[in-house]
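thread: overnight batch results

M.L. [08:02]
morning all. the overnight job finished for the chain we discussed friday. pasting input first so we're all looking at the same thing
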Amino acid sequence: MPTGMNTTIIPMTEHEPAGLDFLRLLSWVSPAFPTGGYAYSHGLEWAVEQGNVRDVETLCAWIGTLLRHGSPGNDLIILHAAWAAGNDDERLRDIAEFACACATSRERYEETVYQGEAFLRAADVWGVVPPEAARAGVRWPLPVAQGLVFRRGGVSRGQSVLSGGYAAVAALVSAAVRLVPLGQTDGLRALSRLEPVMAEMADRAQAQTLEDVGGACFGSDLAAIHHETQETRLFRT
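M.L. [08:03]
and the structure it wrote out:
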């Protein structure tokens, strides 16, 4: 497994005003950013149908467990590794291939690469995406795309990892608001309750390497597999 990290800091140019990195980050984690996140539930649709997620309490338990022991937590480690790779395109390709191999089902694979590649296409407006030749022949999962774009856009390590976690959690909560359904206020309650878990796992991810990727959320993995044949679906995954 790839484990090396390039931690060289890429400075902002002297002509960039203070706060420009933060403005970019607001755009990149905005729900309006065209990554297609609204179309994916990460298997949550099946969990709701089965009654495993039915209110704020069960939603927070489901997402909190995913952050601590499942693929969203792994994605934070992968995002951090991509951020640390900086402008090393070959290293980023290795991380992308590793992240693809970590997908536990067809839907999980499609979810991460479709969103990741949509993220790169949209972020190319800012000129922070590797040239097409450097991206050819490899699929680009979302956490890898986020990590490289955040780094090249001048976003700090801590903000990058935390923002990736927030984007994932916010997408799941948004899906649950429509699927359970929850009211908007209950969705906000869920986000508020999950903030400490997001912060904890973002801190932990910055001290980990790709060797630490692993998981034990079998219920969530099975939910993603069952969703492939779910009779009535609002979401692609």
